[in-house]
Amino acid sequence: MKMSKQFPLNALRVFEAVARHLSFTKAGEELGLTQTAVSYQVKLLEDTLGEILFLRQPRKILLTDAGQRLAPKVSDGFDLLRSAVSEMQGVADGTLIIHATTTFASQWLARHLGIFQLDNPNLAVRLETSQEVIDFSKTEADLAIRSGKGEWPGLRAHFVMRNHFTPMLSPKLAETIGGVREPLDLLKLKIIDPSDPWWRLWFTAAGHPDASLEDRSRTRLGAQSVEAAAAMAGHGVAILRPEFYQDDVAMGRLIQPFPLTCEDGSHYWLVYPHARRHTAKIRAFRDFLKKTLPGFDAGPPDSTT
I want to staple 192 with a disulfide (CB 3.0 to 4.6 A). Which of 85, 111, 123, 238 is the partner? Predict the structure, then answer.
């Protein structure tokens, strides 16, 4: 189809929002349009393309095969446009906005960002933290460090590091029961967040799948770094990634009573919209991780990443 001046570009923007939300109402709220206006723009695009893009069902809509083919390409196109406009405004190459989980940010990233800034003195860094999975279309973040399985539609994902876990506690707390010599000794102490599935996985691997966790108080602190701080204060046993707390072990604030560590298949990944893969500041951050972490997966050359 030949692109003409009459092609409804605004309808593409509406389509992208509807496809992302799978809701005419939510798309309208995002774009400041009525549901009627959203429906009109989608119908206009469908008429222009000669394809039905959505299946309208009671109380929900679904993308058709044609809609599923079109949606990621339109999303990438708008990402490219946003990136181009930002660079023209002198913003894109001036500040790198990183979103990360609180634990990764405090226990690894903050300790190594100085290396990145030495290598990129003209690039400012803004670090944002939360446990939420951000929507790149609704945030200024350029890239994110996420914990998961590396499968996020529309995003390029690079493996950063494995995420494994093991119980850790204050040596003074261990002394209150005469030391921790076997896994079941941990149950004599307060468990920080016994509802965390990591605990069940670890006790099962330690040979105690029936370890009693269900009847314990549910203390949830929201982030591994906060749980580690509580453990250092002697408030209980936390299940942590041991490499993040090597300094605390060396200083005598924490101990790792058992060498056994476990995984749940969820690891740390660098992610960003596929369409931004050639942005200079994202390439710079990839190079930094490759330099700093031997296991980092930089992926194929820039022509295909």
Answer: 238
Q: Residue 251 and residue 110: Cα distance in Å, rounded?
A: 19
Mean pLDDT to the nearest integer, 198-222: 86
Mutual orientation of helices 280-292 and 110-119 as an angle, nearest 10°? 120
- pLDDT recorded at residue 142: 93
Radius of gyration of the chain (CA): 24
Query: Rounded distance, CA 238 to CA 241, Å?
Result: 10
Neighbours of 271 (CB within 10 A): 23
Q: Which of 118, 152, 159, 108 is nearest to 269 (CA)?
A: 159
Report the CATH number at residue 26.
Answer: 1.10.10.10
Instruction: Tell whether 298 is covered by a domain.
Output: no
Residue 88 CA from chain centroid, whole number:
28
Judge if 177 and 233 occupy the same domain: yes
Same domain (yes/no): 57, 145: no
Give the model confidence (pLDDT) of 187-203 as tens digits. Answer: 999 999 998 999 999 99
- Count of domains for the chain: 3
Give mean pLDDT, residues 254-283.
Answer: 93
Q: Are residues 251 and 196 in the same domain?
A: yes
At 248, list the tokens. Answer: 């605390």
Question: Predicted confidence band at 303 (pLDDT cuts at 50, 70, 90)?
Answer: very low
H runs (alpha helix) in 50-162: 65-88, 102-104, 110-119
Let me know whether 168 and 255 are in one domain.
Answer: yes
pTM of the entire predicted model: 0.68
How does pLDDT run across 134-189, given as a tens digit for each residue? 888 888 899 999 999 999 988 999 999 999 999 999 999 999 999 999 999 999 99
CATH number of the domain within which 151 lies: 3.40.190.10
Other beta carbons less than 10 A from residue 36's beta carbon: 10
Verify that 152 and 168 share a domain, yes or no: no
